[in-house]
Structure formats: structure tokens, C-alpha cells
Write a structure and sequence with these properties.
Layout lengths: L17 H22 L6 H7 L4 H7 L3 H26 L5 H14 L2 H8 L13 H4 L2 H17 L8 H21 L8 H15 L2
């Protein structure tokens, strides 16, 4: 007796290739980054992300079990790019002007990625489940930003910066740089003047204030 089962056409969609799966994942991430930047965290649903990414909600949930997990993944990607840029700056900049150049690199990173800035800093991190920590505590971002502390210590060692607590100095610089980036990105209608002048003068004033 001849079996006809092997001759029956297999039903359903063929399995996706690795490239297709990778491309779909990137489409989801791009859609989520755009939606989070435009509509905020609470204005975005997983279904809305799936629709923009042209995938099913089931496929989305298979990759990311919840909206916060997707947001945290985006944050990790963005900050990884920032830390990479800062490390390259530190390695390739002469020590005499390294601290100023690091600060300008930080500001320029966000000015060139305004949507990423909004997705990061205009959304409050709100852990929900028991045992979940804040992104800033668990992501390693604090260790990455300590490159500013190292540049401060370098400048102090060379006599280019006054004595003081490097941790406090780093916090002052981060607050000042954040202020420049936030104002230029989120209040573009205000006549700030030339952004290049604003950021350079502010950074130099911050560093001079640490003397």
C-alpha cells in the first residue's frame, strides 16, 4: 500500500530564514523607537508597535514579552552607542583637551539623535514586577559614564583641573550637558542662537567652574 501522506503538500507558512527573522526584529525595534519618541510610553501599545512593524502581536510577544522589556532593550542599544562614542573619543583625543571633547561628544550624540533622546529621557523608568530594578542601576550605564570621572582625574593629575571630588565634578558636568541637550532638542522654537556656540561656551563654563 502506498502512503499518500508524503505527497500531501505541507500547509502553513514556510519557516522564516535567519535574515528574515533578523530583519523583522529590527523593524520592530525601529517602530518602537519612533513611537516611544513621538507618543511617549503610555501612549504606545504593543499592538500599535506590531502594526507599524508589519508583524503579528503574537510574533512581537515572542521576541519581547512586554512593553517595558522592549523599551529597556532600546535603551540598552542607545546607551551602548553612546558609550562606544565616548570610549573612542577618550582614546583618540589628546589628554589636554580630552575632558572638553568628551563633553561635546556627549551633547553631539544626543543632538544627532533627537528621537533617541526623547525615547530615553522623556520616559520615566517604572519597574512593575517584584524584583525588577531601575535601568540605571542594572544596565551598567553608570560604569560607562565613569569615563568622565577618569578624564577629570587625568586633568587633575596634569594640573589642568583643580582639586575636588571627581564624582561630584562628574555629576555637575552631566547635569550641565543634559541641560544643553534637553533645551536644544525639546524647545527648538526658543531662539537659543548658534547651537555650536551654546554647547561650546556652556561646556567651557562648566569646566572652568570646577577649577
Amino acid at each position: 500500500m502506498t502512503s499518500t501522506q508524503s505527497k500531501t503538500a505541507r500547509r502553513g507558512r514556510p519557516p522564516r530564514s535567519r535574515k528574515q527573522a533578523r530583519d523583522s526584529r529590527q523593524m520592530i525595534i525601529r517602530a518602537a523607537r519612533l513611537l516611544f519618541a513621538e507618543e511617549g510610553y503610555h501612549g504606545v501599545s504593543m499592538r500599535k508597535i506590531a502594526t507599524m512593524a508589519n508583524c503579528s502581536p503574537a510574533a512581537l510577544y515572542k521576541l519581547f514579552p512586554g512593553k517595558r522589556q522592549l523599551l529597556l532593550h532600546i535603551w540598552e542599544e542607545i546607551f551602548a552607542g553612546l558609550i562606544e562614542a565616548l570610549n573612542a573619543c577618550y582614546q583618540n583625543t589628546p589628554s589636554a583637551g580630552r575632558l572638553e571633547t568628551l563633553c561635546l561628544t556627549f551633547i553631539d550624540f544626543w543632538l544627532s539623535r533627537p528621537d533617541d533622546y526623547r525615547a530615553i529621557f522623556l520616559i520615566e523608568d517604572q519597574p512593575k514586577a517584584e524584583g525588577e530594578g531601575y535601568f540605571v542601576e542594572s544596565s551598567g550605564i553608570q560604569d560607562g559614564l565613569r569615563i568622565f570621572r577618569q578624564a577629570i582625574v587625568d586633568a587633575q593629575t596634569q594640573g589642568n583641573l583643580g582639586a575636588g571630588d571627581p564624582d561630584e565634578m562628574q555629576s555637575v558636568l552631566l547635569c550641565g550637558m543634559q541641560g544643553v541637550a534637553m533645551n536644544l532638542i525639546t524647545i527648538p522654537e526658543y531662539p537659543w542662537g548658534d547651537p555650536e556656540v551654546v554647547k561650546r561656551v556652556t561646556v567651557r563654563a562648566l569646566i572652568a567652574g570646577l577649577q
